[in-house]
Design a protein that fits this description.
The protein is α/β, with parallel strands linked by helices and 301 residues long. It has a single domain, classed as 3-Layer(aba) Sandwich (UDP-N-acetylmuramoyl-L-alanine:D-glutamate ligase), CATH 3.40.1190. It is built from ten helices and 13 strands. A nine-stranded mixed β-sheet has the order 5-4-1-8-9-10-11-12-13, with helices on both faces. A four-stranded mixed β-sheet has the order 3-2-6-7. Helix 1 crosses helix 8, helix 8 runs antiparallel to helix 9 and helix 9 crosses helix 10. The radius of gyration is 18 Å and the shape is globular. The mean pLDDT is 97. It binds alpha-D-ribofuranose. The site of alpha-D-ribofuranose has 15 residues, from strand 2, helix 1, strand 7 and helix 8.
């Protein structure tokens, strides 16, 4: 049985390194094109599997070279791909520009990810109903996220929801989140208003119904908010090559740890270490370490 099931997206990441972001109407010369396995759902699944959880991805790929490439990448990471369906749409694609500071700009063409619809996840053999933890993010149709979040919570499955790219969430979806994982920008969108800082954002999201909240703070670590109060997990100083997929590694690592019974604060400590390692190498899944690498970083701190 899968301990963690990710219902989510898969994308072929087409990456070009550029000296800076282009302005409107401008043409820039960049690096050679690199192809990496990506997509928030697939990245989260790969991270969870590498961290040590029996992990399944429920998703859709196209019948094309990118689809075959992504399926192989997931298998290499140890993800169960039995419920990754091949559909008659092109595999999802992300066009990614990476600047010298390691930051990225991303445009996603969803393609086959649009087929991860309510009908697919309602099938009796959909593949997510037996998990300990279900992970969701927002590159699949909104109705699917809302449906799986509420149905999983009603079954007693722990729901980890990463609201990226962000949108406001229906009250029932927010009430299913344990935790909701967002960065500060996403927290404001989900909350539907501004607040005077990340602590107030986290309290606002708890008041709005989330069972627990994690606000990721990049190099500054993360904030955990739950009924026991607020806890700040410090960040780690690392050399940044490429931040693509670091947030997904964090989400997958949290899901793994929760599925093994860790308290949320401990899960976040592990996830901060895992995501810090990923920014030192190029690509998303291609930068994810196996569990012993994360454990030796934690042991040295
Ligand atoms: O979060 C990083 C991911 O966002 C990339 O892998 C890209 O596919 C986009 O989905």
């Amino acid at each position: 049985m899968a301990e963690v099931v990710v219902v989510g997206s898969t994308n072929a990441d087409l990456v070009v390194e550029v000296p800076r972001r282009p302005s409107g109407g401008e043409t820039l010369l960049g690096s050679n094109l690199a192809l990496h396995p990506g997509g928030k759902g697939a990245n989260q699944a790969a991270a969870s599997a590498r961290a040590g959880a029996a992990t399944r991805l429920v998703g859709c790929l196209g019948d094309d070279d990118h689809g075959a490439f992504l399926r192989r990448g997931l298998q290499d990471a140890g993800v169960d791909v039995e419920h990754v369906h091949t559909v008659e749409r092109p595999t999802g694609t992300a066009i990614i520009l990476v600047t010298p500071d390691g930051e990225n700009s991303i445009v996603v063409s969803p393609g086959a990810n649009s087929a991860v619809d309510v009908e697919l996840v309602e099938r009796p053999d959909a593949g997510w109903t037996e998990a300990s933890v279900v992970v969701l993010s927002m590159e699949i149709p909104a109705a699917t996220v809302d449906h799986v979040a509420t149905a999983a919570a009603a079954r007693g499955i722990r729901v980890v929801l990463n609201a990226a790219p962000a949108r406001e969430l229906p009250a029932d979806t927010l009430r299913a989140c344990d935790p909701l994982i967002v960065n500060e920008h996403e927290a404001r969108i989900v909350l539907g208003r501004d607040a005077s800082g990340f602590e107030e954002l986290a309290r606002g999201l708890l008041d709005a119904g989330a069972r627990s909240v994690v606000i990721t703070l990049g190099v500054d670590g993360a904030l955990v908010a739950d009924p026991d109060g607020l806890h700040r997990e410090a960040g780690r100083v690392v050399e940044v090559v490429d931040t693509t997929g670091a947030g997904d590694a964090f989400v997958g690592a949290v899901a793994c740890e929760l599925s093994h019974g860790a308290p949320l604060r401990d899960a976040v400590r592990f996830a901060v270490a895992m995501s810090a390692i990923t920014v030192g190498a190029r690509g998303a899944q291609s930068s994810y370490p196996d569990r012993p690498v994360v454990e030796s970083l934690l042991a040295g701190s």
